[in-house]
Structure formats: C-alpha cells, structure tokens
Amino acid sequence: MSSTPRSQSVRGKNKVIIEKLTYETEILHRDLITVNLQYSHLFWAYYHMLATVRLLNLPGAPPGPYPASPPPPGEEPSPSQIPPMPMVPLPFALPVPPPPSPATPNTN
C-alpha cells in the first residue's frame, strides 16, 4: 500500500504537532520543578520562622517540634512526618476595604 501525498502531509503535520507538544511538556516540567523548589524554600523559611518564635517564647508561638534544618535533597520527609502548619496570628490588622456606597439614582 503506497502513501499518498495527503497521508504524507498529515503525518508531517502530526510529527510537527508531537514535537511541539513534547517541547512544551518539557518546558512545563522544568517550570513545575522550579516552582516546587521555590515552594520548598518558602516552606522551610516559614518553618524556621515558627521555630525561632517558639525558641524565643514570643507571644503567639505555636506548640510543636520543629526540625533544625531542612533535609538534604532527595531525602524529603513523608507527609506523615511533617506536623500540620499552625496558623500564627499576624502582629498587625489587615486593612478592611470600605463597604460599597449605595447606588444613587441618576437624575440627569
């Protein structure tokens, strides 16, 4: 069974689409790894902040053990080993937006 020019054209277009999707998947995978690393750093920074607050006996310190440092790469703790993140009250009040003004009828 010989290939027609149309089937060759479709195969060529499919190949281009597959190559493009493969490239975009690799980019997304790289970006996801970058985001995970950034999130991991933020997580441990927050964790250390909580540990410092607890060690200094500051008000609002949540109870609980905190690790001295993050685990080395490749040795991430299992979710069961990480205690839940307690909510720490903010030392300031967040601004509350004013309520919307009542609609006034247009008298023009």
TrEMBL record:
Region Disordered: start-end pairs: 60-108
Name of the protein in question: Uncharacterized protein
Organism name: Crepidotus variabilis
